[in-house]
Design goal:
3-stranded antiparallel sheet; single chain; binds fructose -6-phosphate; alpha/beta; 7-stranded parallel sheet
């Protein structure tokens, strides 16, 4: 695992944007795995900038997002589909038909989850997966558990996660208690993983992830078993690494 530390989150965004750019330049029809949340926003801004400046062409890129809340329609103001449109897709020349976010409102969540994994597989798998990390060590919405999950599935969100995400909703009670997420198995099959963590509030979790042991109680720790992971941190998130 390669760990790179930058001065602040803007610098992380620039560096992470370069990793994405190099992937797209190498393989213009690459498959990107995308995350929501606050962490990737500076990276998405870099991607938008490079697209506007004509450096980066997304016309052949396809994408699969990690997760979605159960019960939120794609146009709901807090849905992850809406987030992705507003933070990235509306501002770059990607074909929206090539962007995928798990469905949170289908009649059969199990069937939808299976179809999502099948679509990732049919696309040839994810070339570069962008990940953030939750305070409890979750990746996607894979919360601490007794075992690692393999495929896309429905999860109960922990109180820690619901509280952390309440900032996006009018009231904490509105945060859905379930989500659909790619499984750890699907994430680990990505050819390359870019994990981004910024802010002092992530420092303890980042330290635990990097120190191990690998345990489903800290889902992100499993990244130690992937052969091509870049971890990009700002100084605040890296603050406890020497301790
Ligand atoms: C969201 C996702 C989550 C977030 C994590 C950190 O698609 O996959 O694992 O990456 O909850 O969220 P932020 O970046 O808001 O701290």
């Amino acid at each position: 695992m390669q760990v790179l530390v930058f001065k602040n989150e803007a610098e992380v965004g620039k560096a992470a944007g370069m990793i994405v750019a190099s992937e797209i330049i190498k393989k213009p029809d690459c498959i990107l795995g995308l995350a929501t949340g606050s962490t990737p926003i500076p990276t998405y801004q870099e991607m938008i900038r490079m697209n506007r400046e004509g450096i980066l062409d997304f016309s052949k890129v396809r994408s699969f997002n990690l997760d979605e809340y159960i019960g939120l329609a794609p146009d709901h103001v807090c849905s992850y589909r809406r987030f992705m449109n507003e933070q990235l897709f509306d501002h770059i020349n990607i074909d929206k038909a090539n962007t995928h976010v798990p469905c949170g409102i289908g009649a059969d969540h199990e069937a939808d989850a299976k179809a999502y994994d099948a679509a990732v597989e049919a696309a040839g798998g994810i070339d570069l997966q962008i990940l953030g990390i939750g305070h409890d060590g979750h990746i996607g919405f894979n919360e601490p558990d007794d075992t690692f999950s393999r495929e896309t599935h429905i999860v109960e969100l922990t109180d820690v996660t619901r509280q952390a995400n309440a900032r996006f909703f009018d009231s904490p009670d509105e945060v859905p208690d379930k989500a659909v997420t790619m499984g750890i198995g699907t994430i680990m099959q990505a050819k390359r993983i870019l994990m981004i963590a910024t802010g002092a509030d992530k420092a303890d979790t980042v330290r635990a992830m990097l120190r191990g042991p690998v345990t489903p109680r800290l889902p992100a720790s499993v990244l130690a078993f992937h052969r091509d992971v870049v971890v990009m941190l700002d100084a605040a998130a890296a603050g406890k690494l020497e301790a």
